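Check these lines:
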Amino acid sequence: QVQLVETGGGLVQAGGSLGLSCAASGRIFSISSMAWFRQAPGKEREFVAAINWSGDVTYYADSVKGRFTVSRDNAKSRGDLQMNNLKPEDTAVYYCATSRLQYRSVPTSTRSDYESWGQGTQVTVSS
């Protein structure tokens, strides 16, 4: 499995931006899809964005499309989520995760496809 550590969360006003990073250890990171999920208090963990192993295919939840950008740098074993035009409803703990499936050309939004998870980082957007 891959060890993941998220950084970059914090407090921001509505309309502002934040960047999250996910540092990975383990060789299979570079051949696994990576995704970001989030969980707000009292709600289920939901899919946010995903990127395939080579970094050329991305997939977003409708709620963040056009505002968030997912990327990765396999040479640095790192993934990023750039969040712009943040809204109060984006407030949640954000988790990065890597898939148990390797060399998949299209990433998935299915939570059960992801086996390694970070500890999460809090993002709070004030109105």
The mean pLDDT is 96.
